[in-house]
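Before the break, one more example. Copy the sequence into your notebook; we will annotate it together after we see the structure.
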Amino acid sequence: MTAVDALLAQARAVLRRVGPEEAAAVQEAGGLLVDIRYAALRERDGTVPGALVVERNELEWRLDPTGDHRAPEVTHHDLSTLPVVVICNEGYASSLAAFSLRQLGLRGATDLTGGFQAWRAAGLPVARGT
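Here is what the structure looks like once it is written out:
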């Protein structure tokens, strides 16, 4: 097992990952979907309507419950209890990202199994472009 595989396994041992329909239900109930894919993938495949777009390299700074650089969309929430579903392209980077958010105190952070590709394959809404 590679080191990154071990880290991924460690992350997934902590997360209760969700499928596309459950992620949609989280959003419907007021939870936050966070799309961490880079711009080229969002432009190619589209986006999840209503998801907060924060590229992976800014994620911790934009969602840190104690930080001054939180995204405006999250400043009125108690991020320690808010359900947050991180979405990447296929569900790998999002596991590591959600694990990192949990270390910052976002106890409700998890990720979407299969990522955006699973969301789209499930026939859930997709907005074109970024």
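The chain has six helices and four strands. The mean pLDDT is 94. Try to locate both features in your own notes.
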